[in-house]
Each structure stands twice: as C-alpha cells, then as structure tokens.
Write a structure and sequence with these properties.
There is one protein chain. By secondary structure, the protein is of the alpha+beta class. It contains 8 helices and 9 strands. Strand 1 and strand 2 form a beta hairpin.
Amino acid sequence: MTIPAGFARVSASFGMNRTWNAGIAQLVEHDLAKVGVAGSSPVSRSILILLNVAVVLLALPARAQGLALAPGDPVPELQGAMNDAPLHTVAWSGAKLTLVHFWSTGCVPCRIDIPAIQTLWRERRKDGFRVVGVVFEQSRQDPVAAFLKELGADYPVLYPTTATLRAWKEVTLLPTTFLVGKDGRVLRRYVGADPVTVEGMRADVVAVLEGKPMPPQVMPGPESGQDAKP
C-alpha cells in the first residue's frame, strides 16, 4: 500500500496509549471477576475488547479520532495552484454548494465519477454549484491535461500545497469526495466511485440546491476506490 507524501495514518497514535490501555483492561477484568464474569469467557473477552477500543478512541485527539471528516465538521483550508493563480484559496462562501473531489490520473475508479461530476457541474453551476478537483499529481503537465481531455472534464482543478495535503491527511483512498456548504462544513462524504455512489452524489447535490433534505446515504460497494498515490 502506497501512502501519499504528506499524508499519514493515525495508527501510531494507538501505540502511544498501549500501556495505559493495558492497565485499564486489567482493572476492568478485575471488576468483572467480582461480579462473577470469568475473564476467560467469550462474553468477558468481548466486553474487554470493546472497552479497550472505547478507551483508545477517547484518548486520541479529536482530529485523529475521526479518521475522516464527517457531516457537520468544518473542512480544512483548501489551497494550491488553480487556473492561472499560483496560490489560490477556496472560499466556501463563494458558492451555494461546493463539491471537492480528490483524484489522480492513476485512479481507475475516477474514470467513473469524473464524467458524472462534469455533467452535474454543467447542469447545475448556474444554481450556485461549484466543483473543485484536487489532483494528486506532482506535475501540472501531462498526463493530467490529457486525462481530463479524454474524459471531457473542464471543471476547475487545484494542485494542493504541502500544507493542504497535511490538513486533508484523512484522504487515503481515491476518489474521495466531499459536499461542502457555504458555511465551510461537510454535508456529506463519499469514498469510491461505483454507480450507486455516483447516483447518490447526484441526488444529494440536486436536493441541496433545491432546498430539500438529502436522501439517506447508501454505502459504496466493494472495490470502489484505491489507495491514494500522488
């Protein structure tokens, strides 16, 4: 598995709490024994595992706990080279609804959702809908331009700064897409690009733009995304 430069998982954070968690587990097991729950029983082991997980999550910083931005979370700053601007910062208040799409030319599933996003942008940009494609490429030259041309996409593309990559470090699978309101908060998050996910994304965008509640989100199917590779 390849992890993009500037990105990191939070597994190391778990290691920092192992000693403390072990002590908590021993105390819990001791208390369970007092009430007659044998430490070797399946029920006891399950309880201990769940409690350990809860303790670890409570011990982690809020950003590490999430592993990914969730609805209602404020999004990090999105900054990078965009169009002719060497350093552009996306202002969330500049649109009624912004779709932030993380992708790369090596992302096979991205070939499914990029044309759909392009169509949706063309249809609804007049209603205040904006798309920002955040590309994981080290160069602004080909194959990015050729890739977009092949898929018929011409919505704005941003080449993120190192600081932006660090701020959005939860993105470890491509494509990953966020719907962001004009207040800069996540409305919905999508990982992968299967037909169900893409159709759900479209339905959500239409609902928000028309002032309606978003429909329940359907989870993506298997193999709908791949590791992010800059």
